[in-house]
C-alpha cells in the first residue's frame, strides 16, 4: 500500500476531510472496522491537538503521513507550532485527556517537541494473517 500524505491548514473545518482520506486508506488495509475507528480517533485527536494547542487555529500547515509494512501501521502528525502543556492546576479540569486517549487506542504513541515543532507518532501492529 502506498504511503498517504495529507497537508492541511490548522483549522477545525479541515478535520472532516482529513478523517475521510485517512479512513479510506485504513479501510483498504484493515479488515476490522473497530481497528480503523480506533486509529481514526487517535489520529483525529492528535490533529485536533495540533490545531488547538500548536497553532490556535492560525491555518499554519500540518502534515499527516501514514505508512504501512507487513506488520505495522505508522501515522505521524507534524506541525511547526509550539506546544506548551498547561501549568498544573490551570485550565479546564474536564479537558486534557487527549494524550491518554491516544495511548489507549494505539500500541505505541510518542510526542516529540523540538525547534521545528511537534511530532506525534502513532504505531499499531497489524493483526497476524
What does this structure look like?
By secondary structure, this protein is an alpha+beta fold. The protein has one domain: Histidine kinase-like ATPase, C-terminal domain (Heat Shock Protein 90), CATH 3.30.565.10. Helix content is 36%, strand content 29%. A 5-stranded antiparallel sheet has the order 1-2-3-5-4, with helices on one face. Strand 4 and strand 5 form a beta hairpin.
Task: Sum up the structure in keywords.
129 residues; alpha+beta; Heat Shock Protein 90; five-stranded antiparallel beta sheet; 29% strand
Which parts are unreliable, with pLDDT below 50 for 5 consecutive residues or more? none
Reading the helices and strands in chain order gives EHHEEHEE
- Fraction of residues in helices? 25-40%
Strand content: 25-35%
Shape: globular
Q: What is the mean predicted local confidence, pLDDT? A: 88
Q: What's the number of extended β-strand segments?
A: 5
Q: Can you tell me the CATH topology? A: Heat Shock Protein 90
- The top level CATH class name: Alpha Beta
CATH H level: which superfamily?
Histidine kinase-like ATPase, C-terminal domain
Q: If classified by CATH, what would the architecture be?
A: 2-Layer Sandwich
Give the N-to-C terminal Cα separation.
16 Å
Q: What does the radius of gyration come to?
A: 15 Å
Question: How many separate helices?
Answer: 3
Described by strand count, sense and barrel closure, the largest sheet is: 5 strands, antiparallel
Looking across the biggest beta sheet, what order are the strands in? 1-2-3-5-4
* Number of spatially distinct domains: 1
Helix/sheet category: alpha+beta
